[in-house]
Amino acid sequence: MTCDEAEILIHALIDGELDAGHAREVEAHVAQCPRCAASLAAYRQMSQAIASADLRYSAPQSLRLRVEAALPKPTMLVAAAPSRRNVLRGFALGSGLSAIAATGLFAIVLRNDDQERINSEIVSAHLRSLQAGHLTDVLSTDQHTVKPWFNGRLDVAPPVIDLTAQGFTLIGGRLDYVDARPIGAVVYKRRAHVINLFVAQTSSTARRPARTETIQGFNIRTWSERGLNFWAISDIGADELVEFSDKFEAAARTNTEG
Fold first, then answer.
1. 130 and 24 in one domain?
2. pLDDT tens across 70-92, in order?
3. What Å distances lie between residue 77 and 7, 74, 80, 146, CA to CA?
């Protein structure tokens, strides 16, 4: 394990997010690397300081009383007793609306859960790739070597673009598994930082605008275009990951139009 790999996994080790095998690898590296041992000690000290700090704040009772006093007083209305038919009709209408609302809410929750699950798998795949010997199946800075390697291994080969001139060095590609299916991973480096670009075919050809979120300390930028889903993940800053995806999309469009 290299220091760059350990630096990434140390955070997961402190948070208890590594399995036993990966935890042992990090601990073994730290035991013989003064630099990483110092980093681990500093991160643990920082974590303990945050955990022990009294960061909770309770609003005073006087604030609650002022808020309650500012609320409009409820108006008591005396209504005629509803007929049995109107009551039953109201229950039927309410049940129907509740069922529709519940169905829509359930669908939204399912979609959100599905996206969160896939993003979690993307993070796991990224962490796996950082272990020694797992980053690439084909090691090359030549896009004309990396792209043909995917042919026959996937239904649709991912686009492979050389962005070295733009500051993102292509170093190879590999097959990975996300959502129980094989997908392509095109690997880049920004200085000493790894960027995994996962690409999977989708049934929709609609373009989905890119968005960035942070999960377990990694920035993930996702977008869809030309019938493909893209996930770019790295520990580089969110602004640099946006720069990477923008340059990748621009070059991909130029290649398609050309």
1. no
2. 877 665 555 555 555 554 555 55
3. 66, 9, 10, 74
